[in-house]
Amino acid sequence: MPSIMKTAGVIAGLAAVACALPAQPKLTSRQNHIYSIAKRQNAAAAALGLQDVDILQFALTLEWLEASFYQQGFAQFGDDQFTALGLNAVQLADLKSIGTSEASHVGFLQSAIAQAGVQPVQPCQYNFGFTDAAGMVGTAAILESVGISAYLGAAPLVSDAKILSSAASILTIEARHQSFVRVAQGIAASPSPFDTPLGPKAVFSLAAPFIQSCPGGSNLILTAFPTLTMTSPAPVAGVMALAQGTMLQLQSDAASGATFCGFTNSAAPGGTAFSPFDAAQGCALPPNLAGTVYVTLTSAGPADGVLTDDITLAGPMVMNLS
């Protein structure tokens, strides 16, 4: 039987080893900030009772849209129209491979949903408003940004670790897609150190304008917010170089009750920077925003920077800022 002294020595040795081990990493204040944004923005979605399979159906809806976007775009525009943008043969092949990846994501999600005993949603009828190859590449950058925000925002809602891991593997590919498309546009591949999460209703509102109709049983339980567009400065494909304080003219059928513009971006304290809105004058662009910014019209401008569905009146729309 071991002596008390010997046992005490073993315990002391273990304690010494434990003290010598590196401390467990802690989340930085910025990482906690990103997580809190995602968690708050998804509060309304959680209240809807969305289960993991509902989140998968939502992801499949977006992947169907992206896969159809690339399929239709490449069917409409020849290779010469993309090389005219300055893309070489390797870059064009990379661009086309994005569509292949999106189709693979569709197949993966269909399988996961079917294994859960649920009928996967089917593709809808879309209208992407294609005019030329340059416009397609510009829209691709927006869709990839929205996809990243969708997966990032849905993460706090997923309870199954395996599903979360699988979704994360798709998220990293979507981020690579976005970086490549931005490079193809001749703009910064990674304009911000963090991406911005969005809740399901905001993401669906960005996708809804492209959707004309969906087959029976393939409509989500979400309802889109009214659309929001910018009339001045004139929207351009790619990045907009706008100075702090630039007045933005916004238009929406739901603008009458709006008192603030919300600018959701990972750099904004609390997640969203609010600027007073006037129907005639518009609203001023807040400082320190870069990369993908989601703009909404709201009925309030909380000082803590928390944007919720109950104060959102229209939007979001997407701005890419330098």
Structure, described:
By secondary structure, this protein is an alpha+beta fold. The protein is 45% helix and 14% strand. It is built from nine helices and nine strands. It has helices at 4-20, 29-41, 43-47, 52-76, 79-83, 89-115, 133-154, 161-184, 200-207; strands spanning 125-126, 211-213, 229-232, 247-251, 260-264, 272-276, 283-284, 291-298, 312-321. Strands 6-5-8-9 form a four-stranded antiparallel sheet, with helices on one face. Strands 3-4-7 form a three-stranded antiparallel sheet, with no helix packed on it. Strands 1-2 form a two-stranded antiparallel ribbon. β5 (260-264) and β6 form a beta hairpin. α4 (52-76) runs antiparallel to α7 (133-154), α7 (133-154) packs antiparallel against α8 (161-184) and α7 runs antiparallel to α9. The longest helix has 27 residues, at 89-115. The protein is globular and about 50 Å long. Mean pLDDT is 85; it is low at 1-24.
